[in-house]
Amino acid sequence: MAEGGGDSSQEKTEEATPRKLEKAREDGQIPRSRDLTTTFILLAGTIGLYTFGQSIAGSLMGLAKNNFSLSRTEVFDPAAMLAHLVSSFGAGLFALIPLFIVLLIASVVGPIALGGWLLSAKAMAPKFSRMNPAAGLKRMFAFKALVELFKSLGKVAAVMTAAVIALTLWQQDILQLAGQETRSAVAESLHISAVTTILMAAVTVLIALVDVPFQIFDHSKKLKMSRQEIKDEHKDSEGKPEVKGRIRQLQREMAQRRMMSQVPDADVVITNPTHYAVALKYDPDNMATPIMVAKGGDQIALKIREIAKAHRVEIIESPVLARSVFYTTEIDEAIPTGLYVAVAQVLAYVFGLRNYRRGRGERPQYPRVDVPRDLRYD
């Protein structure tokens, strides 16, 4: 903390980085809305009642008729009553299975609608710190817990108000159900239940429309980072500048050592004579064109010349050609086609000079190297 005020870099004002979001997801920290799940379940229940209500009502009516038509012998036979109970339970469950399937799908889709599917072993791992009674009491009476309690009470009150309004509107129809024929009474009661569920679902939809953006905002706010945290994360992921610089230096040294090891196998080293040096190799039996095996400037060029002298590699001074090859060719690459003639003149001189020293022919004339103007680097 700096004198005279807080360090603004420590304020969490920056949006979470992709790495922070990924880590939070691994820890099970994703936005979730219970109200959205409740809305999905209520809407699914309403759709299920409208879709399968008639079928369910018919099955339950048949089940009720069967239960009220038992003989005296069956009523006083415990084994028969137990078998009848099991049969009735199975029939009722089978009639309600379509609605249960719809509700099950809604209970799965609702939570993953916001935040997506997540299966985090770290989030499911037991945390013994939560078993501390003192910490549990502190969480129960914390300000956030009280806010959540009042929010829940408000949601319950809103849903209950919608239910009461719906039942009040249908009060006369509900009272008249007792005097109606069984089939029509069941159909009417299902209709009233569906309308009541729709009103309750409408209230939860409004609550979810408010809660979902709030949960996204709250999740984003919790994951916000300070500028220092972003810098530290960048250092951890990319490496500290000192380490990266040292790695690059070692890579350059390794590449340079490998390059220098190829100089003794070169056929000729062309120099500037002091600022540049390039080493070329050409094997007519195995190469289509000459390749450059080493190059460098200043101290590296001096080192190339020293190695060439130590291994009796011919050194030719040709400033224009040395600069051209240096700037147009990379290590282990073939020379460009525009330099074929100039390099061929140098190699012919080197091979002729080599034969002369072996007593095979006359001493060759030093070539006049001709480099195209578009490949010259002054």
Walkthrough of the structure:
- The protein is of the alpha+beta class and 378 residues long.
- 63% of the residues lie in helices and 6% in strands.
- It contains 14 helices and 5 strands.
- It has a 5-stranded mixed β-sheet with strand order 4-1-2-3-5, sandwiched between helices.
- The longest helix has 41 residues, at 182-222.
Which shape, going by the Cα principal axes?
Answer: elongated
Q: Based on DSSP secondary structure assignment, what is the total number of beta strands?
A: 5
- Structural class based on helices, strands and sheet pairing: alpha+beta
| Strand content range | 5-15%
Please give the count of helices.
Answer: 14
> From the structure provided, what is the oligomeric state, counting identical versus distinct chains?
single chain
Distance between the termini: 56 Å
Mean pLDDT across the residues is 80
The main sheet comes to:
5 strands, mixed
Segments where pLDDT lies below 50 for 5+ residues? 1-9
N-to-C SSE string, H for helix and E for strand:
HHHHHHHHHHHEEEHEHEH
Overall helicity = 55-70%
Radius of gyration: 43 Å
- Order of strands, main sheet, comes to 4-1-2-3-5
Salient structural properties:
alpha+beta; five-stranded mixed sheet; disordered N terminus
Structure summary:
The protein is α+β, with helices and mostly antiparallel strands. The protein has helices at residues 18-26, 34-67, 72-75, 78-112, 121-124, 133-140, 143-169, 171-176, 182-222, 227-238, 241-260, 299-310, 319-328, 340-357; strands at residues 268-271, 276-281, 291-297, 314-317, 333-334.
